[in-house]
């Protein structure tokens, strides 16, 4: 395989918009089951995160892909990841 | 100012690159999902057409109450946990007496005895097993089920097929949103086909126009489609782990909205027919299915499920107390009381499948689906044109013809397999997918054997045109239901599918005629170049 096809692996934006965005979106969805108001029907915290996953992913993806300030995007993902991880950790072990 | 212009330009360039790559990398699979999705919109109609059937309204025309009581007497007590009743496409009522337990795959499933009862109340068949297995073996839906299954899972084992279609949904979201953001002249682009253009330029204009019209639709479908795929594959179980500590049963009870501890004290149930009549009166339509829980106990209840009705967009569920026949409530799709989550969920299905205004909305959805297919085809063809000098591009063009023209032909072949195996008394659930695979193998061999891509395209066009023409004849010979009878019985779904097939046949032959005409004109003016033969 031509090495030039693999150049994207060295691109920081690829890792930010690809795996990192996906991971943060998934963690946000899981954590929403904890903090999203369940409502009187007690189902909103289950259904709304599932519905919102494609939206959260698309927002983060286009932001990280188009931003000129990669550092800012990187920090945003780190903050989101940390907050949601803490929420999940508290839910399981708290 | 200059810096601002350069930033805008670099963003536009980045969006174009994103738009191209999201299409090129997953374009062929995306086409498969969009094409089969367009077919899946009319899956119910295909089901009725393939069985030459029309709804008999057996749920209100037959004595459901008498049948339920008769069957309940001969069915083990544990299967009276839940009884689902619906009319299939072979003019029978299907009664499934079942309980819930884990299937061999480890998933919670329905397990019980399925009875098929004809309009005269006679038992046609009786089968015991898991609900998922019984549905898989049900020949009535062999064709429509197979076509829908390609759309939802691409026939890849669960959950990977669903995850892949979810990723394809996200790719479609990227392509459509980036397409939208790239447009500087959105409204003029809607009508931007320039008559004097031909070849690559015309293709680019066609891609832009079809893409612009279908952008809102593509965004909606990509979003709802990826929701369906991800929530079914891992989303719901994962949310169950987080919110209920892995107690999937508690999750299901929360979503279904049923109390966990039901009284099993025996008590005669009320007349099912009266509850059904009341539900029909309230909704002015026939329920798609009925579910009776805890039959013969003091917790008995009946749920009537309705597809979107006239003037309404979402589903309707009416719940009755089956011990005294009283109407209890309009139940939300999830949970016990109305919620935002339930409203959104009840809107997503009609939006994705275009069922919100009956056949009218389905026709619009099919048209927009065809436009989205066309956008994918022209997008990949543009890529092939751009790289027409590269050796790999010739293989890419060949692959485009194989996929674009091959998939419809394979789908039509599976319908052939369905009818022929049905006529021969063979297992239609087995032969329908197998015919698809055989057709795919033959088309792949033809793609490799026929050097001239233009000729290959013509062969596949002729095949599709012929199959579209022959399928109504095959359907008639296998069922004996003529168009005159169809008109007499108001079989709208069947006539609709036959009309679509004949229109597609005419389109294939017209397209072939145009291709031959263009070639003749080109032969007169100049000798054909290699690139015009190689590129689609």
Would you write up a description of this structure?
The complex is a heterodimer of chains A (about 90) and B (about 525). By secondary structure, chain A is an all-alpha fold. Chain A has one domain (about 5-95). Helices cover about 75% and strands about 0% of the residues of chain A. Chain A has helices spanning about 10-35, 45-65, 70-94. The termini of chain A are far apart. The model of chain A has no long low-confidence stretch (mean pLDDT about 90). Chain B is of the alpha+beta class. In chain B, β3 and β4 form a beta hairpin. The two termini of chain B are about 45 Å apart. The interface of A and B includes residues 30, 40, 57 and 61 of A.
Give short descriptive properties of this protein.
heterodimer, A: 94 residues, mainly alpha, 3 helices, 76% helix, elongated, B: 536 residues, alpha+beta, 3 domains, eight-stranded antiparallel sheet, 19 helices, disordered C terminus
Architecture blueprint of SSEs:
The complex is a heterodimer of chains A (94) and B (536).
Chain A: H1 12-35, H2 44-66, H3 70-93
Helix pairs in contact in A: 1-2, 1-3
Chain B: H1 2-41, H2 43-50, H3 58-61, H4 64-73, E1 82-87, E2 92-102, E3 108-118, E4 123-130, H5 131-136, H6 142-153, H7 160-182, H8 186-189, H9 199-244, H10 248-256, H11 272-283, E5 289-293, E6 301-306, E7 316-321, E8 326-330, H12 340-353, H13 358-386, H14 391-423, H15 428-449, H16 453-479, H17 483-488, H18 492-525, H19 530-534
Antiparallel strand pairs in B: 1-2, 1-5, 2-3, 3-4, 5-6, 6-7, 7-8
Write a compact overview of the structure shown:
The complex is a heterodimer of chains A (94) and B (536). With 94 residues, chain A is mainly α.
Largest sheet strand order of chain B: 4-3-2-1-5-6-7-8
Helix content of chain A: over 70%
Instruction: Give the integer mean of the pLDDT values of chain B.
Output: 86
Radius of gyration of chain B from CA coordinates: 26 Å
Count of helices of chain A? 3
Q: What's the count of strands of chain B?
A: 8
Number of domains of chain A: 1
The number of helical segments of chain B is 19
Structural class of chain A: mainly alpha
Chain-averaged pLDDT of chain A: 90
